[in-house]
Write a structure and sequence with these properties.
Layout: E1 4-6, E2 33-35, E3 40-45, H1 60-63, E4 74-79, E5 87-97, E6 110-115, E7 133-140, E8 143-145, E9 153-155, E10 159-165, H2 169-184, H3 209-218, E11 225-226, E12 229-230, E13 242-246, E14 254-260, E15 270-275, E16 278-287, H4 290-294, E17 301-303, E18 314-320, H5 333-349, H6 355-364, E19 368-373, E20 381-387, E21 411-412
Parallel strand pairs: 1-3, 2-4
Antiparallel strand pairs: 3-16, 4-14, 5-13, 5-16, 6-7, 6-15, 7-8, 7-21, 8-9, 10-12, 10-14, 11-12, 13-17, 18-20, 19-20
Helix pairs in contact: 5-6
This protein binds zinc ion.
Zinc ion binds next to β14 and β15.
Length: about 425
C-alpha cells in the first residue's frame, strides 16, 4: 500500500480532521505534502456531504443538504519541480470505498444517489423532478444493488468525480469574473446559474485567521469543472486512467475527492453518482513545458482507465432538440440529451419503476451518453445507452410486452 499522504478519520467531520481538507479552489492553500515526480501515494477521501446523508429510507437529508460545504478535497499535494506551463501526469492506480469498514458514513460498505430539490441545487431534469429523492446502494465487491431499485445490479465504474490542480491568482480572477457576469444575467434564478465564492462553511486547508478568511472570499466553489480539471465527473477516469493536468502554480498543487462507486454519463441528477468516501492511490510525474509543447492550454486531457464493466448489449434511447411543447430548437444538444433521458424514464416506468427510481438509476448506473449528431439542422441527436444486463428481467421490447412488477420505491422527502 502506498504511503497515506492525506489521512481521513471517517468517524469525524471534515471540519475536525487532523489534516484539514479544503472545499474551495485557491492558490494560497498550502500543500499538505511535497512529492517527487515518480512518487506513488494514497489520499483518503471523505464523501462530499461529510456524512450527513444517512443509510435510511428518507430523503430529508438530501432535501436539506448544505451545498456550501462541498466538496471536501484531499490535498493539495505539491510535486517538486512543477512549474506553470508543465503538465502534471496523474495515474489513477487504484481506488475504492473505505477499506474493510462497515459504518454509518457513505463509503463504509454503502453509498447513495440523490436527486436535489429544485430549491436546493436542482438537477438536469429538475422541471420534472422538483423534490428530493434518494437511493441507497449496497456494495458487494465491485457490484452495487439497492433496496430502493429492486431488479437492478451492476459492476461499478469507480472514479474520482473531482481531481485537479490549483488555479493561479490570475486564472482564479478570470473564473470569478466570468461566473459573476453569468449570474448577473439572472441573479434570482432558481436554481442559480452559478455558485459565487462563499465564506460560509469554507475550509481553506491549513490556512488560518485572516489569510483563510481572505482566501475564502475569492476561493472558487468546487461544483463546476474548469481549466484545472476539477469536478469533471467523467466516469471513465477509473483504475488505470492517466490524466494530464495543466499546471498553473509552482508545485502544481493536486487535489482530489468526490469518489463515485459508479455513475452514468452526465451524472444527471447532480448528486447522481453513487457517492462515497474511500481511498485513491495515485502516481505522479511531470512533462516539463507540456502545455505549450502539446497545445494542452485550456483543459486537461486524459486516457481512460483499462478496468471497467464489460457490457456488450445496450438498449439505446435517442432524443432530438425539440422540447416537450413541440417547439423546434436549433441544434441544442443539451435539450436532445434531456429528451433521450426522459424517453428512457418513460420506458422504464412500463416495467413498474416510478419515474423517480428511473431517474436515480440513470444517474448511477454505467450508462453511456453521446452527442450522436450535431450538424443535421435543426436537430441535434443525443443518445443514452442503457446496458440490458444490469436488469434481472428482460428489458428489451418484444411482442410479449413489458414485464411489469411492483418494484417498490426510492426514498423520498
Ligand atoms: Zn459526486
Amino acid at each position: 500500500m502506498p504511503e497515506v499522504l492525506f489521512p481521513v478519520d471517517q468517524s469525524r467531520s471534515f471540519y475536525d480532521q487532523q489534516v484539514p481538507c479544503h472545499n474551495r479552489w485557491h492558490p494560497d492553500i498550502p500543500p499538505v505534502a511535497s512529492v517527487r515526480p515518480g512518487s506513488e501515494f494514497r489520499l483518503e477521501c471523505r464523501e462530499w456531504f461529510d456524512g450527513t446523508i444517512g443509510n435510511n429510507d428518507s430523503a430529508h437529508d438530501v432535501r436539506d443538504a448544505d451545498l456550501s460545504m462541498v466538496h471536501p478535497l484531499s490535498g493539495p499535494v505539491a510535486v517538486t519541480g512543477a512549474q506553470p506551463g508543465d503538465l502534471l501526469v496523474v495515474d489513477i492506480l487504484d481506488l475504492g470505498p473505505v477499506p474493510q469498514q462497515a459504518g454509518p458514513v457513505a463509503g463504509q460498505g454503502w453509498g447513495y444517489t440523490g436527486v436535489f430539490a429544485r430549491t436546493n441545487g436542482g438537477g438536469f431534469l429538475t422541471d420534472h423532478f422538483p423534490d428530493a429523492h434518494k437511493a441507497v446502494w449496497d456494495f458487494h465487491g465491485q457490484t452495487a444493488t439497492s433496496r430502493h431499485l429492486p431488479g437492478v445490479g451492476f459492476t461499478g465504474i469507480t472514479h474520482p468525480g473531482l481531481i485537479g490542480t490549483a488555479p493561479s491568482h490570475q486564472l482564479l480572477d478570470q473564473w470569478n469574473a466570468r461566473e459573476a457576469a453569468l449570474i448577473s444575467t439572472a441573479p434570482d434564478a432558481v436554481p442559480p446559474l452559478a455558485l459565487p465564492p462563499l465564506e460560509h462553511n469554507a475550509l481553506m486547508g491549513s490556512l488560518t485567521g485572516n489569510a483563510a478568511r481572505e482566501a475564502a472570499r475569492t476561493g472558487a466553489r468546487t461544483a463546476p469543472p474548469r481549466e484545472n480539471g476539477g469536478n469533471q465527473d467523467i466516469k471513465n477516469l477509473t483504475r488505470g486512467a492517466r490524466v494530464f493536468l495543466p499546471v498553473f502554480v509552482e508545485g502544481g498543487l493536486l487535489s482530489a475527492g468526490d469518489l463515485h462507486f459508479s455513475q452514468g454519463d452526465g451524472e444527471i441528477t447532480f448528486c447522481g453518482g453513487i457517492e462515497m468516501g474511500g481511498f485513491l492511490d495515485l502516481h505522479v510525474d511531470l512533462i516539463k513545458d507540456g502545455m505549450n509543447a502539446y497545445g494542452i492550454e485550456h483543459n486537461p486531457v486524459f486516457m481512460p482507465g483499462r478496468t471497467e464493466p464489460r457490457y456488450s448489449e445496450f438498449l439505446t434511447f435517442t432524443g432530438v432538440s425539440v422540447d416537450e411543447s413541440g417547439n423546434q430548437h436549433y441544434l441544442d444538444s443539451q435539450l436532445a440529451y434531456k429528451r433521450a433521458c426522459l424517453n428512457a424514464i418513460t420506458y422504464l416506468t412500463r416495467f413498474g419503476y416510478t419515474p423517480e427510481q428511473a431517474y436515480l438509476l440513470l444517474g448511477a448506473a454505467p450508462v453511456e451518453g453521446r452527442f450522436s449528431g450535431v450538424v443535421d439542422i435543426p436537430n441535434s441527436c443525443a443518445t443514452l445507452y442503457l446496458p440490458t444486463a444490469i436488469f434481472d428481467f428482460d428489458v428489451r421490447p418484444s411482442s410479449s410486452g413489458p414485464q411489469c412488477s411492483p418494484r417498490g420505491s426510492c426514498a423520498t422527502s
